[in-house]
Specification:
Radius of gyration: 26 Å
Largest sheet: 8 strands, mixed
Number of strands: 15
Number of helices: 13
Length: 468
C-alpha cells in the first residue's frame, strides 16, 4: 500500500492532490497492479509546476507616447516601470501604451491607456468599471440649449439609483438571471439602469463640425453590475493564481478561458457589455421622447474591455479604444475619443496599427493624480477655477458641488495627445463634436459621512490647540 511518504520520496510536492492520487493508486494495487507502476500512476495526479515570471525585458512593449514637459516625463517614466513589471506575467504575449497613458495603481498594474494581449482573461486589466464606453446620438438640428436642458432633467449621476426608475429590457434581465455569476446582482442591475455614476463620466452636448447637427455623447460604464462581476472575477483569478503562478502579482491574476469558470466569466462579460450599451441609449431615447426629435444616427464603442481576436489571444484595453476592423458584432467604422469638457470630442476611424496592437487612445489621460492636481491649484477657490476653465460653456455638476479634478487643467494637454495620435498613426480624425456644454457628477462625496467626520475632527483639533 502506497502512502504519502512514498510520494514525497519520489520528489512529489505535498498538496491536496495526494488524497485522490493515493486512492487511485492503491485501488490499482488491489486490482493487481505492480506497486512501481501504481506509484507512477499516482504521480500523474500532480499539478503542473508553477509558472515562473518571465525575465525582465523578455517581452518588450510598444510605446506610443512622448514626453515634452517635466510632468509628462515623470508620468512616462512611471508608465514604463509599471509596464515592465506587468510584462513579466507568464501568459502575456504583447503590450502597448497609448499617448494618454498614466499609472493606475501599484507598480505592475496595467496603466490607463494600456493594452495587453494574453492567453488568458485578467479581470484586473478591465478593472471594476467594466465596459466604460462612449455613445453618440445625432438629433439633427435641435437647439443645443434645449437638448442640454432635456439631458439635465433625465440623467442621474452619483451613487445609488434614480428617483424614477427606467425599465430594463426583458431579454437583458432574463439573460442576467440565467447566469450564476450575474443572477445575485440582478437587483442592482435594475436599480442602476439609466444612471451614469461619477468620476470622469459625463453627458456632453455639442454640434458636429461637419454638419452642425446637435448630438449627445455619454461616457460611463456598467455601474454596480460590472463592479460586482469584477469582484467575482478577481476572486476566481486569485484562486487560480495561487495554484499555478504564486509569483504573479495579484493585480495580474488570470482566469483560464478553457475552463468552465472561464467560459462563464466570458459570457458574463458580454452580458455586462449589452447592459452598458442599453444603459447609454435608454438615456438618449428618453431625451428624444422629451424633445420630440428624430434620431439621425448613433454609434458607440467601449474602451475598458477585453476583446478576443482571431489569433486566439485576449486583448485587454484599460482605457484604450478599439481601432481594428470587426472588434464587435455591432461595431461601426467610427469610434469616439474625448479630451476634456472644453475640447471637441474626436470622431475617429481606426488604423489598426501593429505598434498599438490595434487600439487608439480613449481620451486625454492625466499626468498626475486628482490629489496632486488639487494641491497644484493651491488656495484658489474652486468657483474661480471653474469660471476660468469653463468660460463660454454650459458646464454643470449634478450634485451642485464643483469637482476641480474634472476640469480641463486636470488632464493632459489635448493638443499634445491629438498630435501623438497622428504622429503614431493610431487613428484618423474624421469629424469633431464642438462643445456646447456638459454634465458631470461633481464632488458628491463632500457631504459623505466619512468626509464630514474628518472635517469635524480637523476643526476640533484646531479648536483644541492652545493659544500663543
Amino acid at each position: 500500500m502506497l502512502t504519502g511518504k512514498d510520494l514525497i520520496d519520489a520528489k512529489a510536492q505535498p498538496g491536496p492532490w495526494f488524497a485522490k492520487a493515493l486512492d487511485q493508486a492503491n485501488a490499482a494495487i488491489a486490482d493487481g497492479m505492480d506497486p512501481a507502476a501504481a506509484l507512477n500512476l499516482a504521480l500523474t495526479f500532480a499539478p503542473p509546476p508553477a509558472l515562473q515570471l518571465r525575465g525582465a525585458g523578455d517581452i518588450a512593449f510598444f510605446e506610443n507616447i512622448e514626453a515634452n514637459t517635466e510632468f509628462e516625463r515623470d508620468n512616462v517614466s512611471a508608465v514604463r516601470r509599471t509596464m515592465a513589471t506587468l510584462m513579466r506575467t507568464p501568459v502575456i504575449e504583447a503590450g502597448a501604451v497609448m499617448p494618454d497613458a498614466c499609472p493606475a495603481g501599484p507598480q505592475g498594474t496595467i496603466p490607463v491607456g494600456g493594452v495587453v494581449a494574453s492567453k488568458a482573461i485578467h479581470p484586473g486589466m478591465h478593472s471594476a468599471d467594466i465596459c466604460c464606453s462612449m455613445a453618440l446620438t445625432n438629433y439633427g438640428r435641435v437647439d443645443p440649449a434645449k437638448l442640454m436642458q432635456a439631458v439635465a432633467a433625465i440623467t442621474h449621476f452619483g451613487p445609488g439609483e434614480r428617483d424614477t426608475a427606467l425599465a430594463m429590457p426583458h431579454d437583458l434581465q432574463a439573460d442576467i438571471e440565467d447566469q450564476a455569476l450575474l443572477k445575485p446582482h440582478a437587483p442592482v442591475a435594475a436599480k442602476h439602469f439609466g444612471t451614469q455614476g461619477d468620476g470622469n463620466h459625463f453627458a456632453y452636448v455639442g454640434t458636429l463640425a461637419s454638419s452642425g447637427d446637435t448630438v449627445l455623447v455619454t461616457h460611463h460604464g456598467s455601474r454596480g453590475l460590472g463592479a460586482r462581476l469584477y469582484k467575482t472575477g478577481m476572486a476566481l483569478a486569485e484562486k487560480h493564481r495561487k495554484a499555478v503562478s504564486p509569483e504573479t502579482l495579484k493585480a495580474n491574476a488570470w482566469i483560464d478561458p478553457n475552463t468552465a469558470e472561464g467560459e462563464a466569466y466570458w459570457r458574463a462579460l458580454q452580458t455586462v457589455r449589452a447592459w452598458t450599451k442599453a444603459n447609454h441609449f435608454v438615456l438618449h431615447d428618453c431625451v428624444r421622447e422629451q424633445l420630440g426629435a428624430q434620431i439621425e444616427d448613433r454609434f458607440w464603442n467601449e474602451h475598458n474591455f477585453v476583446f478576443q481576436k482571431s489569433d486566439g489571444l485576449f486583448y485587454h484595453a484599460k482605457g484604450a479604444t478599439p481601432a481594428f476592423d470587426g472588434w464587435a458584432d455591432d461595431a461601426t467604422d467610427l469610434t469616439l475619443i474625448p479630451l476634456n469638457m472644453r475640447e471637441p470630442i474626436l470622431i475617429t476611424r481606426g488604423l489598426n496599427a501593429n505598434h498599438g496592437l490595434g487600439f487608439s487612445p480613449h481620451g486625454a489621460g492625466r499626468n498626475m493624480s486628482r490629489t496632486a492636481h488639487k494641491k497644484l491649484l493651491g488656495d484658489v477657490p474652486a468657483e474661480i477655477v471653474f469660471a476660468r476653465e469653463t468660460e463660454g460653456l454650459d458646464a454643470r455638476f449634478f450634485c451642485g458641488r464643483i469637482d476641480v479634478s474634472e476640469l480641463p487643467s486636470a488632464y493632459k494637454n489635448a493638443a499634445t495627445v491629438r498630435a501623438q495620435i497622428d504622429q503614431f498613426g493610431l487613428a484618423e480624425v474624421v469629424d469633431e463634436v464642438i462643445p456646447h456644454g456638459s454634465i458631470m457628477a461633481g464632488d458628491w462625496e463632500f457631504d459623505a459621512p466619512w468626509r464630514k467626520k474628518r472635517r469635524a475632527q480637523a476643526n476640533a483639533s484646531t479648536t483644541d490647540e492652545p493659544s500663543a
